Structures are given as structure tokens and as C-alpha cells.
């Protein structure tokens, strides 16, 4: 039996690429294995966003290749994703036991390259990038049966000075709207209720698509698909958050009241050095417009601390923005040096010690804000889409339109339905309540 196991690192785009690789392999007769030990082929789908992600991958790869040497069963080890694109053949000089290296825009060739490797018994490397990838319909083996990821665009043109993604995922390419709509119609027919549209910069969707279709227009067309109940999307760039998009979010019933809008820094000077192309006052104006249009919108963000040249005043400005905006949740990271990026050449890189202190200050500040933002739901009746059993014994779990986890008692037959839950308690990570009639 030909079998495979995929280990995924990184963002939702990588998770979804793994679903595609799984779909393609199953189509040519491979079976998913329950554990890496049972698999004839192991694929590591890698991430290079920060140094830590890279280290995690190399230690996992080292472990697997050692096992491969000890194990008499010859296993194929493949490296896919962003580190494959970044390092290509160089991975072999570090870890010679790798059999296949394949970049993220080449995965449609995976079955063919696996076959080639088996014939040749030599490492196969493909990172040239398929320029027509965004037009292709690829079989997908999805991990969930109710919620689905749908890629609407690939790549990124923004070149934020700290970020490696534009070098690894190539230029921005939008999928034709007809293909996206056909995929979502098919998902609805299979019983999927929620879609999350994926792209590095979804709100610039539509550049160069023919016939032309803007992101708000795409949302309108998806909103018309019967069977789909909720629409989400990640990630939006503040500079591309248009009034038209805010109106679409306000007016379209299926588009959820939740937005991830990465701020990165609260200092104009640092934002400019990051090449983010917006100022704090522009960002604040957009937040005001969003909250005026959609008062109960749930907002989350990404923060980088310790960017080169970040002084104490710049850092304080980030803390001020966190206080003022009162996000429902944040992701915060220490600045990490990445290959080829413009920020590498900036002066005044900060010590890890300062970055650590700043990161904990950010988390300490945000913790009570998140709790307060969750507490505000107590007493409210919220629509919860039930997606499974809760991690803690016996209860059901689902998500609000604002993307918060809610635990409550109920019958398993409710999984896949939207129910009203009266919120009774709130903690840092979730809400809990009782079912309302
Ligand atoms: N396209 C998305 C996601 C980018 S990666 C966006 O623009 O938001 C997710 C987050 O990782 C970024 O928002 C940023 O906060 C963080 N990140 C990216 N590169 C980084 C680096 N070199 N060091 C630390 N954090 C980084
Ligand atoms: Fe990276 Fe900026 Fe593109 Fe996001 S928008 S992927 S942070 S370059
Ligand atoms: Fe990582 Fe590549 Fe995604 S670097 S965050 S897997 S686009």
C-alpha cells in the first residue's frame, strides 16, 4: 500500500496546501497514514516566517532522517512549502537524506515528481514556480466537513521590509472569480456551511483578473450561494481596506463581524521603515469607520516588537495603540531577521533581551483587554455555529460570528447547526453559556 503523512508548519495557506497535496496524492492511489511511522512517504510542509519556524523544521527533519537511516524500510522524505522555496538544493547540503524538494507554487506537479524520484532514486528538486497555478483546479482532501478554506489569491506584492513571503510565494495572482464561485458552490452541495477565503492580502483581490471582480464584489457573489451560512477571510492589509469593503461587511448577512487587521507597530516612523504604506491616523480612521458601520465587530491584529531602530517612544506608541483600539485578540512576535529582506540592512538591530521584555509587556497589557472584550458578551444571546465537541469533557463547542469559541451543553445532533447560546461566563480564550430556546 502506498501511503503518506504530511506534517504542516506555518499559516492557513500552508494548511490548505497540505489539503491539496493530500487530495492529489489520494487521486493517484496513495492512502493517508495514521502516523508518520506507518507512512511510506513523509512530507514536511514548511514555514520560514521567523527563524524559530525554520529551526523547528530542521529539528523535525533531523529526527526523521535519522530514523530513516536506522529503519530498513526505505522511506521517502519530501520537503514542501516556504523553506523548500527559500533553500532549494541547499537543504541537501545540510540534510542529505531528503528525496524531494518542492516549492509552494509547484505542488500541482507533486504526483509526477514523486514518480520521477522513485524511478531515479536521486533527489528531485522543483522550485521554479508554476505561473499558471492560480488557474488550476486541484483536488482537495479537506480535514473538516463543515468549514472549508478557499484560496482566492496567491503571493504578495507588498514587500513589508521584515517579511520573507513575497520572495517565497511570488507576485500577487488572483484566482478567476468563476473558479472560486464554482468551488464554493461545490462545497455548499457537499454540506459545507462556512468558508474562509485565504490570501496574503485578500482585500487587494482582483488585480489583473479578467473579467474584473473586486474583493467586495466577490463577497457579494459568495453571499448569494445557497447553503453557505458564514463567510470569513484572512488576511487584510490596512492600506487596502476600502469604504466599499466596509459597506459590504456591514450589508452582507453571511459575512461575519470579525476582522484581522495587522497593525505591526503603533509608531509612524517604524511603520514607514516597515514599508507598511499607512500611518497611525489612517489606520485609526479605518477602525472608526469599521466600528461605526459594524458596532459589535471583533477585531484582532498582529504586532512586531523590536523592529530595527525601535526606540522606547516607538514601543510606547504601540502600547498606546493597543490600549486605544482594544482588540479582541492579538498575535505578537519578536522581530526576526529573514533572508533577502530589506530590514536586514537597517541599522540598530535590538538585542534579544530587549525584544523579550517588550514582548512580555505587550502580552501583559493585552491580557486584561482580551478578557474585558470577552466579558462584554456576558448576558448576550449569540449565534453559535456548532462545529464539534469541546476539548473539556462532554460539552459542545462552536464559534460566534465574531470568531470566539463558546462551550455549552447540548446534543451531538446539533453539530453542523447554528444555535442561540446565552453567554454566562467568559475567560481569556473562550466563552461559556446555555442553549436558549
Ligand atoms: N500577509 C499577512 C500575514 C503575514 S505573516 C499579513 O500581512 O498580515 C503573519 C505575521 O507574521 C505578520 O503580520 C507579522 O506580524 C509577522 N511577521 C512576518 N515577518 C516577521 C518577521 N521577520 N519577524 C517577526 N514577525 C514577522
Ligand atoms: Fe508579508 Fe507584508 Fe505581504 Fe503580509 S503584506 S505577506 S507581512 S509582505
Ligand atoms: Fe510561513 Fe510561508 Fe505561510 S513563510 S506564514 S508558510 S506563507
3D structure, described in words:
The structure is a single chain. By secondary structure, the protein is α/β, with parallel strands linked by helices. Helices cover 35% and strands 22% of the residues. It has 13 helices and 19 strands. It has helices at residues 12-27, 51-70, 82-87, 90-94, 110-120, 165-169, 177-189, 215-223, 243-251, 268-273, 280-293, 312-325, 352-375, and strands at residues 3-8, 31-32, 41-46, 76-81, 100-102, 124-126, 147-151, 153-154, 173-174, 194-198, 230-234, 258-260, 298-305, 329-334, 381-389, 396-399, 405-408, 418-426, 430-435. Strands 2-1-3-4-5-6 form a six-stranded parallel β-sheet, sandwiched between helices. Helix 8 (215-223) packs parallel to helix 9 (243-251) and helix 12 (312-325) packs parallel to helix 13 (352-375). The radius of gyration is 22 Å and the shape is globular. The chain starts with a strand and ends with a strand. The mean pLDDT is 96. Bound molecules: S-adenosyl-L-homocysteine (SAH), iron/sulfur cluster (SF4) and FE3-S4 cluster. Residues 10-11, 13-14, 47-49, 81-82, 164-165, 168-169 line the site of FE3-S4 cluster. Residues 156, 158-160, 163, 165-166, 200-201, 237 line the site of iron/sulfur cluster (SF4).
